[in-house]
């Protein structure tokens, strides 16, 4: 099944709450208000591409991050 890309031209992007952390250049932005998907983009390149994830996949990712399931080196 082929899906067309959502129109993100009027998306209201918001930065990660960690944007003011020790490395403010490693941030993402997400857009709310898209049924069933979560658009994500690099805050350093707002005109660049955005990735879209299913809401379930995004929620699983956020839960894993909050649970510290991605240890840093």
Task: Give a quick summary of the entry.
The protein has one helix and four strands.
Strand content range: 15-25%
Oligomeric nature of the chains: single chain
Largest sheet: 4 strands, antiparallel
Span between N and C termini?
Answer: 39 Å
> How do the strands of the widest beta sheet line up side by side?
1-2-3-4
General form: globular
Question: Can you write the helix and strand succession as a string?
Answer: EEEEH
The radius of gyration over CA amounts to 13 Å
Helix/strand-derived category reads alpha+beta
**Total number of distinct structural domains:** 1
- Low-confidence segments, ≥5 residues, pLDDT <50? none
State the helical fraction.
Answer: 10-25%
How many helical elements? 1
- The count of DSSP E runs of length 2 or more, i.e. the number of strands, is 4
How confident overall, as mean pLDDT? 85
Organism: Actinacidiphila reveromycinica
Protein name: DUF397 domain-containing protein
Pfam families: DUF397
InterPro entries: DUF397 (IPR007278)
């Amino acid at each position: 099944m082929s899906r067309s890309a959502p129109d993100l031209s009027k998306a209201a992007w918001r930065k990660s709450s960690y944007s003011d952390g020790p490395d403010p250049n490693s941030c993402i932005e997400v857009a709310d208000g898209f049924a069933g998907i979560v658009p994500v983009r690099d805050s350093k390149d707002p005109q660049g591409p955005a990735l879209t994830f299913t809401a379930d996949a995004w929620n699983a990712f956020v839960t894993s991050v909050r649970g510290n399931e991605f240890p840093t080196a």
